[in-house]
Amino acid sequence: MTAPPVVRGTAAWKYFGDFRDALLSGQVLVLQVAHPVVAAGVRDHSDYTADPWTRLMRTVASLSIYVYGGTAGARVEAARLRSLHRSFKGFSDGRRYSALDPAAYAWVHATLVKAPVDAQRFFGVPLSGPELEEYYAQMCGIGRLLGVRERDLPPDWAAFERYYASVVAGFAANPTIDTLFETVRTARKPVGWLPDSWWRPVGGLQVFLIRATLPPSFRSQLGLQWTERDQRRFDRFAACVRLASTPIPAGLRTAPMRWTGKLNVWFRAHPRVYRALIRGEGPGAAPGTFT
To answer: Would you list the DSSP string of 87-103?
Structure first.
């Protein structure tokens, strides 16, 4: 499968960085840590519960480079991530695990592939068949740059959906998912000046969106209730987002993520400036983190 380059107007360019994707960020995290290897790695090596906003900024910076940083930028970021994760090892349930376990590594990429498609299905206009095939080919190309083995990437979108459903069907609740939900509910304000009355509903909304957008079978597996009233609330919310955002040109919907990618590629070429501003070596480069 030959991947067309990610340039203006192509499917990955239009959809991967759409700001509506952020509405599925909680769902993506839950599905990632549902994988037992990812759950163990996050439990043993992540600092996100203590500082979720720094962790989020580093993750967004890294993701932006994959699609919007150009091939060279993606290669550099892929090498950095694999080097960072090489030391993330341990034992879980008596078995040794590695953050670079091929199946777990492919699953994390799969959740990032699926989320923009789901975001359009829930909050925008679903991708057409040709768009899906182009988008999937491009994301497979990015996956190969990141070190996902070609045999771990299904050959087309239909096969990918079957793979995705089969992996989710094998998941069960775990303590890392419980910790993630608690962190979402209780995360401190990102900035001190934000009024408490504005911030308090955010955690509840994020948990609601997780419940709304998780695959129904896994939602039931986690014991998360979902009623007809909940569905009507979500349908109204989705309709409002769709009405407000669909007329916005794709270039504007993706602008924050695209410029984040370009800025971080520039920082890679000027590390002294980055260190002076951020006091770090790059997004996600701090030791003891699990991206």
So the answer is: T-EEEETTEEEETT-HH
Higher pLDDT, 177 or 271: 177
Over range 256-275, report the average pLDDT: 81
Confidence (pTM): 0.88
Whole-number pLDDT of residue 175:
95
What is the distance between the alpha carbons of residues 94 and 286, in angstroms, rounded to a whole number? 28
pLDDT of residue 289: 37
Using the predicted structure, report yes or no on whether residue 290 has a pLDDT greater than 70.
Answer: no
